[in-house]
Amino acid sequence: MPNKHLVLWDGECGFCRRCTVWLRKQSRYDSLQFCPYQEADLTPELREECSKSIHVIKTDGEILKGGRAAMFLGRFTRWNRLARMGEWPIFLPFVEIGYSIVANNRMVFSKLMMKAEK
Fold it and tell me: What pLDDT digit, counting tens, does each position of 3-21 carry?
């Protein structure tokens, strides 16, 4: 079993890249390993899924995706408590809807919310 959770993200997406950089800076622990899914050794099915949303392969082998993966990653930042609340069954459907909206409109959100790359 690996000793770090593997974060699979879209290496061709500027928004995803910026979010990954932010997460690396915010992470309070050395428990995450980041890899663009395009560079990972994945099954064709998992590769296709990773093209649609962020995925985390936990150290125990469990695979999280989309909003659930985002909330799991939030546990490693100062937003830990909020992320844990987002995982509650009453909130998780709204997290997934919000994640889906952002993921499907990455370019728009990138322009609205992120600083231009230098």
Answer: 899 999 999 888 898 899 9
